[in-house]
Structure formats: structure tokens, C-alpha cells
Amino acid sequence: MKAILCKSFAPVSELVYEEVDTPSAGKGEVLIDVVAAGVNFPDSLLVQGLYQMKPELPFIPGTEVSGTISQVGEGVSNLTVGMKVIAMCQLGGYAQKVAVPYMQVMPIPDAIPLQEASGLLTAHATAHHALKQRAHLQSGETLLVTGAAGGTGLAAVQIGKTMGATVIAVCSSDEKCKVAKQNGADITINHSQQDLKETVKALTKGKGVDVVYECVGGDTFHACTRVMAWSGRLLVIGFAGGDIPKFPVNLALVKGFSVVGVFWGSFTQHQPQDFMMNMKELVTWYTQGKVKVVVDEAFSLANAVDAINKVTSRLVKGKVILLP
Question: Where does the sequence pass through the membrane (predicted)?
């Protein structure tokens, strides 16, 4: 089969597209014929050796896929050949086939197109976990989302609105603000034209926001620390801007807010039952039209480098996917 291989921790351009051995379903696994694979910002960090984990080389990147089951391994009784599924694979998603432990595979209804489904796990599941388990977002609260037109930012806008929050979407252009508005944002801020801190203070009449979904880092993070409401929760999602900020903890002390880390991958390992309940809720919301994966662009597997570069350039409005 064809796959994308990372042979050394190096720039994304060093990834290769080549023939590799076809995997088979081992005990407790299913083999998935991949229809689409989601492309995520951490994928670029992983292949450069800049992520929290460093896989053994060589490896196939890719953490989320959709497709159909073509083989069922020993001990698997709840999944059958031909089922439409989404799967969290940790590695191996940038390929025509991938073997995945059955506990990380979930059937999906026909109402959800497989190309969209491939982007549901990482972005939407991260936002869902962040707002539900980490922020305990309540109906009527104010949610500020940075990077709100990106994959996980757009998911946070949709989910926050579904949970009853007033959503303020922060984007870098009017075009991106329009996309966020179309996906449920009540208010949008183009931070390239408006001062984020002063605008939020004016919008909230000085109260500040209850929850911030922060995935940019750098100056954006620092501005968010200045607009937190009392008992607010500042969610640390990631650093798409490239700058990991240093936080003056005295701000949390005097303003009475919490800084809460969100690492969805660890959540799935530590709280697998909560993860599966979250996914069932997400799928239900999807079929009800409350959330949706917005596919910005689909690339062929051979063009995975271009796909990753588009994600890291922060030009994406929604999700980028690969079509093996």
C-alpha cells in the first residue's frame, strides 16, 4: 500500500510517499480501508521531533481517519467488516490502510459523510472535552475563541453555541470572521484591525469573559489574560502562532481565574469512558445539525506535505483532509 513515511525528525518537506507493507488486524484490532485522514497542526510538530512524544523511526504520521472495516482481528465482536467508522490511530493515518485497536474505533451513521467524519475526532473532540470536562461551560456564560476559523477553533465556536454560551470569535481577517459567524459566533473580532483587549472589555462592559479557548499563544494569550472575568477559565489548547508564552501567575491570583491545560490525547487514555460518551454526544449533535466539520480543502495522499504546510500557514478555514 501507499503511505507517507517520516524517516527522520526533519522539516515537513522531508516526508516521503512510498510503498510500504500492508498491515493486518492483530488481536483486538480492526483493519480500516482509509477513505480520508484528518490533517492537524500537531502532525507537523511530530515529524520535526517537536511534539510531546517522539515515535520510533520510521513511522507513518496521522492520528484520525474515517473509512470502512476490511478485516476484524481475534477477540473483536462489536465491529464487523463493511462498517463505516471513524478511528483515533495515534500514528499510521496517512496511509491507504491502518490497523487500530477496536476500543479506538466508532461506527458512524450514514448521515455523516466519510470525508467530513475524518475531521471530527481531533478538532471537535478536543473542543468538546475542553469546554465540557475542563471548563465546565455553562449556558449563559461568555466564551471567547481565538483562532476561531481554524479546525479546532471553529469546532469550539459550534460546540460553545450548542452548549448555550454567547460566543466571541477572534480571527485574523474579515473573511475568517465571516466563516466564524456562519458557524454560530455571536460576535466577531478581527484582531488585525481591532485591539483585542480593549474590544473585549468594551463588549463585556468591563466584566470580562467566563471562558477562553486559546489555541494561538504569544501576544494573543497575553491579551486574553487581561480580559478574564472573576472565576474565569483560560483554556490552554496550543500555540499555533509558534510562541509559547510565559505566564505571570500573579494575574491569576488577583483576577481570580484559572489557567487550565487541555491535552485531549491524554484525556482519551485516562478517561476512556468519558471520551466515548463525548463522541456519542458529538455524533448526535452532528446528525441534529448542531455541529459540522467544515472541509476547507482535500489533498491527495501524495500531496501530504502541501496539506500540512497549508495547516501550519494558518490559512485554513475549517479542516484539511487527505484522500488516500
Answer: none
Parent domain of 36: 2-102+294-323
**144, part of any domain:** yes
Percent of the chain with pLDDT over 90: 85
Domain final position from 247, 264, 281: 264
Identify whether 112 is part of a domain: no
CA pair distance 304, 173, nearest whole angstrom: 26
Taking residues 178-186, report their average pLDDT.
97
Q: What is the pLDDT of residues 119-167, one digit of tens each?
A: 888 899 999 999 999 999 999 999 999 999 999 999 999 999 999 999 9
